[in-house]
Amino acid sequence: MRQKRVVVGRVAFTLGLLLLLLPLARWGAAYYWQQQALRQIVIEPISISAPDEVESGSWVAQLQEKEQGDQAREPNLIEIPKIKLRAVVLPGVTPAELKRGPGLYPQSAAPSEGNVSIAAHRGVYGAWFRHIDELEPGDEIMLYLNGTRYWYSVREQFVTHDRDWSVVESNGRAELTLTTCLFGTSSKRLVVKADLVGP
Fold first, then answer.
1. In this prediction, what percent of the chain has a pLDDT beyond 70?
2. Cβ atoms 79, 86 nearer than 8 A
3. Is domain 2-49+56-198 annotated with CATH 3.30.200.20?
4. How confident is residue 29, by pLDDT bands cut at 50, 70 and 90?
5. Quick one: pLDDT at residue 27?
6. What is the 3-state secondary structure (H, E, C) of the chain?
7. What's residue 71's pLDDT?
8. 104 pairs with which residues across the strands?
């Protein structure tokens, strides 16, 4: 009987340890992938001219083609100095993509035309957006997309439900939208909106 209790205790301890280590392993894998991706790209020189004209809706698809191809990639990065964030932005928000870093919503418009929307995890897989709740109006955000640097200024921050797709839709305003989950619930989203200041 005592031996049974010892075995059960060891099994419970091992399972508990694995449950604790799993989030750390996920975070480590995401961090490792980001560090490898950052080493492969060079930020300078960055074009500050206007990007080539592309149709809205095809823009993210073009980034996906570049990502899947074997060609040299231009940097697709997000930098937020206030919260010391620098991460590679992936084209897409599938679970597999968000495990590696921030991802562009497929319905994102080209930066000069409308709403560029980016999602990222807050508590797992690198937790790239864990500190975006600290952003305030006027804080700077830089995006490096398709060889052009875009500079945004934070406008507002708010919470909405997870099915509120209006936050990532374009309304003719050149803006950036960052979305992430609230800690403790996946049914709410923390949203940061920023206005395009210039390329």
1. 65
2. yes
3. no
4. low
5. 59
6. CHHHHHHHHHHHHHHHHHHHHHHHHHHHHHHHHHHHHHHCCCCCCCECCCCCCCCCCCHHHHHHHHHHCCCCCCCCEEEEHHHCEEEECEECCCHHHHHHCCEECCCCCCCCCCEEEEECCCCCCCCCCCCHHHCCCCCEEEEEECCEEEEEEEEEEEEEECCCHHHHCCCCCCEEEEEEEECCEEEEEEEEEEEEEEC
7. 43
8. 91, 118
